[in-house]
Amino acid sequence: MLASPVYLERSGSLTKASELAQHRLLGFTQPDTLNDWPLHDAEGNLVRIVPSIASSSGETLSQMALPDLGIVCLSDFMTHGHRRVDRAFCWHQVGYAPAAKAVYYHNTALAARILCFVDYVIAELKNKPFC
Fold it and tell me: What pLDDT does 23 receive?
């Protein structure tokens, strides 16, 4: 979940998920499950936001968050470059990461290489911070 420092300065920072309703939230038009943010409400459920501004493109949402238009929740690969340049762009991280899946054709000639690669990726991603 990311917001620019200017947006947070102007609109106020957040300390709990219930405060999201007071902010401009940037979300997806579809699928609706992309509007389930990795924060837990009082009952422990993931928070489903109602976007103030919606797009079908994560890149569009990222570009809207940069000039202070609101708070967005995007995958790490879409925001990593911005966060490397300006660490303040990272607003909040939670201990939630969606499952990653390795999809491949089962082929015994390639199985050893594939399993080696999957093991390598697991080892590299384990304990990596979001920000």
Answer: 92
